[in-house]
Structure formats: structure tokens, C-alpha cells
Design a protein that fits this description.
The protein is an alpha/beta fold. The chain contains 15 helices and 14 strands. The mean pLDDT is about 95. The site of 4'-deoxy-4'-aminopyridoxal-5'-phosphate has 15 residues, from helix 5.
Length: about 425
């Protein structure tokens, strides 16, 4: 049972607190009173250092779509490791992965990086370099990694978020005020609110950055009309439209942009395209991507990165993406629909206010009956936050690993029996919520 003061995780945590702030390296994997340390994973299961087994419904925050230790990915990575893990030269592996991505997305070219954070940073810098304009617009509550500009208004409180036109609020202490001045925060899924702000800053805006289904802003799909309006207004003012598909690329063979039928000017990618290894990418048409091109002298946007397009990542990523064919997406859609339906049914049976939203293999649990449309409607009351944390603990102790903020990301190795086990554990955990909150 978690927490257990005598567990190996607790003793690792005590040791880790000396050399790592918070006992680990990621705010997102910290949980109170101590994080659970992983030992190994296979398929859709992980085992912690105490030997507890979990069905992994977080999959390294959506990046593992084939689960853990897939034999083809091990083979691809191992083959490259034996040939050398990194070179001060380009390799064929990056051409192969770029070609696969260009066959699935309406893009010509790709630049690789090591994380989604870097991908978004490069996309914003590319938009500035291409347009010569300083400002960017992004949606309130949307997470795009930890670049100063991209993390503005990630978690504003109701007291700080302002009226219909959102106020740009710093996420991290020490954020320069100039950053806030250069970020226009727009409301998600509100055409009039977003387009009027975009037009008001029109001649200064380099781009509008949008995640078609922003996880932290509720994981509700954008209305098609909203994305179309962003497409139209960015064209009107001469700014670029940037889709952050770091997570949503796992929604379909052609990504979220294929599902919605909208072509952005730049797309950021990460997570699944690295086959389990660190990765990021920015992709777009030749005209925009020319900002990175050093073949005609110093580019508008020089970009390096010691480990960018690392061949181990590229080789594993290529195989991961090849395995992710149209049938794989059908399966992911089916298990996602089944888990969402099972959870929503459990909410009804237990008489608890709540809903599971999302699309495909991604879902998020809200302890609320409000229609969730955007960051503000998804914002939890204290009671909802209490219920979510009681629920998460109960789920963990029933062998299901989900994110502390209610996100689940499913994977291909999950069988129908695993799906039933997830739904059963959710139902039991909800019974516990009813009893205690
Ligand atoms: N964009 C989105 C939409 C994300 O969800 C994330 C990470 N969860 C990032 C960017 C940043 O990616 P990374 O963690 O690889 O830096």
C-alpha cells in the first residue's frame, strides 16, 4: 500500500533528497509524501522498486505508445548503439525519420531537437525570425513545455486571470516582465475573444501557438470552427499558425491536424516520435523552415544541439512510427472509447459528479458536471481537487498508474482484459471517493 514508510521507494526518496531537490528531476512525477521509484516496465505494465505491479496509464506522460521494452524498439536502439551512439556528423537516420513525418503531415521539412520544450522554443523563434515580429499568442492554461514565453498563463488563479481578455500571468518566479509583455494570452475555444485579441496585436504577432486538445486546459478537443478561425485570422494578419502536436500526434495517423482538417504553418512534435527516447521536432513548409538553413550563409535562426537528431532516438523513433499504422490507431481509438465509456458509466452508477473527456488514447477525469470547454471551466474547486487526489491514491493502490492531475494515456499492448481491469479499478476507486469525500 502507498504510502509505506518502510518501503524501498521511501528510503530512496530520503537518500535522493540529499542530492536532488524534491528527490527527483521532474516536478510532474513528484507526489506527496514521496514519489514511487520505477524499477522496470514490460508492455503496459511497470514494477516499482518494491515489486508492486501497475498497469501504466501514464506511459511516460504520453510518450510511450507501444508500452515498455517493445522488442522491435530494443533491437533498433541496440543495433545503433553498437554502431555508435552519437556523432559530430549528421546521419542517414534523421533523413529516414524526417521522410516518414513528411509523408504523414502536410510539411516539407523537419528539424529535430531533444524535447518538446525545445521544439516549441524553436517554433516560436522560427516564427519571430520568419516574420520579424516580437510577440506570440497562446491559449490560457495550455502547457507547451518550459520555455519562458510558452509557459505564460499556464496556471493562473481566478483572482489573477482577469476578465474576458485573459491577463498574461507568469508561471515561474523570476519571469522577466518583458516576457509577459510579448505574450498575448487568448481564451481557448472562444472565437470572438481570441480573434479580437489577435487582431488588436496583429502587426506585432509572429505566431499563434495552439494545442488542438490542450491537456492542462482540460483535455477537451478544440472546436473545429475555433481552429478554422485561428487559421483565418493568422493569414489575415500575416502571422504563422503553430500547432503543438507534442501530445496530440498520438491521436491519428495524420495527427490532430489530419483529424480536424487544418494545415498549420509549423507543427511541433515530440514524445511518441522518439520511440521512448528523448526527442522534439519542428516541422513546416520549405519557405518557413528556410530560417534554419545554413547552406546560403548564416541562417536567420542558427540552431544546433549536441544531441539533436541523435541516431539512437532516430532509429527507435522510425520503428515506433512504422509500427503505428492505421490499424494501430483504430485499436487505440477503440480502447480509449471503451475506457471513457466505462469511467462515465461508473460516475453515473456511483452517483458522483464527474466525466472522462478526451479523444483516442488520451483521456482526463474531471470531478465536475460543468461542461468543460476551456481552462476556466476545467479549473477545479477545492472539493474537486480533494476528490481527485483521493481518487488517484485509491487508483494507485488498485494497481493503476495515472497522472496526478487526472490524465491517462493508453498504449497498444493493452488487451481487452487490461481495459476491463482499468475500468474495474476506476469503479472501485470511485466507490472510495463517495465514502470519504
Ligand atoms: N508541448 C506539449 C503539448 C506537452 O504536453 C509537452 C510535455 N508534456 C511539451 C510541449 C514539452 O515536451 P517535453 O516534456 O518533451 O519538453
Amino acid at each position: 500500500m502507498y504510502p509505506d514508510q518502510n518501503s524501498k521507494s521511501k528510503s530512496l526518496y530520503d537518500r535522493a533528497m540529499i542530492s536532488l531537490p524534491g528527490g527527483n528531476t521532474r516536478t510532474t512525477v513528484y507526489i506527496k509524501p514521496y514519489p514511487i521509484y520505477a524499477a522496470r516496465g514490460a508492455g503496459c505494465r511497470v514494477w516499482d522498486v518494491d515489486g508492486n505491479e501497475f498497469i501504466d496509464c501514464i506511459n511516460n506522460f504520453t510518450s510511450l505508445i507501444h508500452g515498455h521494452a517493445h522488442s522491435s524498439l530494443i533491437e533498433a536502439a541496440a543495433r545503433q548503439l553498437a554502431l555508435g551512439s552519437a556523432f559530430g556528423m549528421p546521419t542517414e537516420s534523421e533523413i529516414d525519420l524526417a521522410e516518414l513525418l513528411a509523408a504523414r503531415l502536410p510539411i516539407d521539412q523537419v528539424r529535430f531537437a531533444n524535447s518538446g520544450t525545445e521544439a516549441v522554443m524553436m517554433a516560436l523563434k522560427a516564427a519571430r525570425a520568419f516574420t520579424g515580429r516580437p510577440k506570440i499568442a497562446k491559449c490560457e492554461g495550455a502547457y507547451h513545455g518550459s520555455y519562458d514565453y510558452a509557459e505564460v498563463s499556464l496556471d493562473p488563479t481566478p483572482a489573477a486571470w482577469g476578465g474576458n481578455a485573459p491577463v498574461s500571468v507568469a508561471y515561474a518566479k523570476g519571469t522577466p516582465t518583458n516576457v509577459l509583455a510579448d505574450v498575448v494570452t487568448i481564451p481557448f475555444n472562444d472565437i470572438e475573444g481570441a480573434t479580437s485579441l489577435i487582431r488588436a496585436h496583429g502587426h506585432e504577432l509572429a505566431c499563434v501557438l495552439v494545442d488542438p486538445m490542450p491537456n492542462r486546459a482540460g483535455l477537451v478537443p478544440a472546436d473545429k470552427a475555433y481552429l478554422e478561425a485561428l487559421r483565418d485570422v493568422t493569414r489575415e494578419i500575416g502571422a504563422l499558425l503553430v500547432f503543438d502536436e507534442v501530445i496530440t500526434f498520438r491521436l491519428g495517423f495524420h495527427g490532430a491536424q489530419g483529424l480536424w482538417g487544418i494545415d498549420p504553418d509549423l507543427t511541433t512534435l515530440g514524445k511518441i516520435i522518439g520511440g521512448g527516447f528523448p526527442v522534439g521536432a519542428v516541422a513546416g513548409n520549405k519557405e518557413v523552415m528556410a530560417v534554419f538553413d545554413p547552406s546560403r550563409g548564416k541562417p536567420a535562426l542558427p540552431h544546433g544541439g549536441t544531441f539533436s537528431a541523435n541516431p539512437v532516438t532516430m532509429r527507435a523513433g522510425l520503428v515506433a512510427m512504422q509500427l503505428l499504422d492505421r490499424m494501430a490507431f483504430e485499436r487505440l481509438d477503440a480502447i480509449g472509447d471503451a475506457v471513457r465509456a466505462g469511467i462515465n458509466d461508473s460516475f453515473r452508477r456511483h452517483g458522483v459528479s464527474g466525466t472522462a473527456v478526451g479523444l483516442g488514447s488520451l483521456l482526463k477525469i474531471h470531478f465536475s458536471d460543468r461542461p468543460i470547454r476551456d481552462y476556466r471551466s476545467a479549473y477545479m474547486t477545492e472539493r474537486e481537487a480533494r476528490r481527485l487526489s483521493t481518487f488517484n491514491l485509491a487508483l494507485l493502490n488498485r494497481g493503476i498508474l495515472a497522472s496526478s492531475y487526472g490524465l491517462m494515456a493508453l498504449s497498444l499492448p493493452m488487451t481487452d482484459a487490461d481495459v476491463d481491469q482499468i475500468i474495474g479499478a476506476v469503479s472501485d476507486a470511485l466507490a472510495g471517493v463517495v465514502a470519504t469525500t
